Amino acid sequence: MRKSKRCQWFKGVVATGCRAFSPGARGSSASITLLVFCGFTVLQFGSPCPLARTTAVAANSGIDHSAEIAGPILADGSAIVIDDNVYIPENAGEGWSLSSPDPDVLRFELRRGDHWSSSYWIDPPSSERDEIAGQTVYPSGTQINIAYDFMVEPGQTNSASGPGRWLVLGQMHEYKVPQSPPLAIELVNGDHMAINIGTRKLVYVYIDPNPIQRGHYYSMNIQVKFANNGDGFLQVWRDGAHIVDYHGSIGTGVGTYWKQGIYRSSAQETISVNFRRLKITAVAG
């Protein structure tokens, strides 16, 4: 990987272009780390607790989160960076869980029984997870532009579908809201791609009549504004085709953050998904 002048994180510590101050003793569970990250100040209490999420400034329309992944991809829950966006892995911590075969690619592999657990969350036996969770929260009313490519590797057809079952490949999740996300890219009816905007019930604004082509990289372009007053919208293009044109309320009116990877109800088969060229921009509402 070529050297980058962008900020890089290794085991929660800023390595390039940022400053880290640790008032506590190294290795102490009571340590407090002050991180100055590309203009954001974040307090980290203890280790290895995840970083506190920062709030995106609504006037940051010129910020460009480009695709390069900085730093090594480790299996121990260490924070990673895609340009200047910080992500925390949420997975079983196995050697196969998360890797970066190319500088702008993340490969997620989820096997039966892969659960995420932390000091504040334990996945139930009925769900399996291999995701990264963004640490930037975008305020309600902000237009969020998300572009990325994803590819589901050849393998057994998804069986985590049907009543009470799910498979999510990307989502904007509401911050500290314990319910379904207001935007989820899913696989339903086996390998059919769908887009769900329901938080308390299923609200599909798109279901592909055909199954996805495994091994093919799909180019996704999403423009969304979460608002619960009727002023929201969602526009989605896939491989250049305009597949969603929704206007109306979306979400419950709180901030959201991006999660990428695989989250499903328990299933027998292994599934592997590659994501690349993730780019997120925010425009003041």
Description:
By secondary structure, this protein is mainly β. The chain has one domain: Jelly Rolls (Sandwich), CATH 2.60.120. It has no helices and 23 strands. The strands form five sheets. It has a nine-stranded antiparallel β-sheet with strand order 7-8-9-12-22-15-16-17-18, with no helix packed on it. A seven-stranded antiparallel β-sheet has the order 10-11-23-14-19-20-21, with no helix packed on it. It is globular and about 45 Å long. The N terminus is likely disordered.
Distance between the termini: 37 Å
The Cα radius of gyration reads 18 Å
* Highest-level CATH class: Mainly Beta
Return the structural class: mainly beta
According to DSSP, the number of beta strands is: 23
Q: Order the strands across the largest sheet as they lie in space.
A: 7-8-9-12-22-15-16-17-18
What is the CATH architecture descriptor?
Answer: Sandwich
What are the secondary-structure elements, in order, as H or E? EEEEEEEEEEEEEEEEEEEEEEE
| Count of discrete structural domains | 1
Instruction: Report the helical percentage.
Output: under 10%
Gross morphology is globular
Question: What is the number of helical segments per DSSP (H or I, 4+ residues)?
Answer: 0
Strand content: over 45%
What number is the mean pLDDT?
Answer: 81
Briefly note the CATH topology name: Jelly Rolls
Low-confidence stretches: 1-50, 57-66
Describe the main β-sheet briefly.
9 strands, antiparallel
